[in-house]
Amino acid sequence: MGALASVALLLPLLSAAPPAGADVPEAGVLQGQFARAAERQGVPVSVLLAVSYLQSRWDTHGGAPSVTGGYGPMHLTDAVTALARTAAPHHSEGGEDARGDSSRPVRTGGDAPVPAPAELPERLRTLERASVLSGIPAEELRTVPAANIEGGAALLAAAQREAGLPASADPADWYGAVARYSGADDSATAATYADDVFDVIRTGETRTTDSGQVVMLPAAPAVAPATGQVADLGLRRPAAGPVECPSSVACEWVPAPYEEFGDGDYGNHDKANRPVSQSIDYIVIHDTEADWNTTLKLVQDPTYVSWQYSLRSSDGHIAQHVPLKDVAWHAGNWFVNAKSVGLEHEGFLTSPDSWYTEAMYRTSARLVRYLAGRYDIPLDRQHILGHDNVPGTVASTIKNMHTDPGPYWDWAHYFRLLGRPITPSAGPHAGVVTVRPDYSSHQPVYTGCVTAGQACAPHGSGAVRLHTAPSADAPLVQDIGLRPGGQDSTTGVNDTGARASTGQSFAVAERRGDWTAVWYLGQKAWFSNPVKEPTAVNARGLVLTPREGLAEVPVYGRAYPEASAYPAGVPVQSVSPLPYKLLAGQRYVVGGRTPGEYYFAPVFDPSGHTVVRGQEEYYQIQFGHRVAFVKASDVRVSRA
Question: Which residues make beta-bridge pairs with 526?
Answer without folding.
Answer: 467, 517
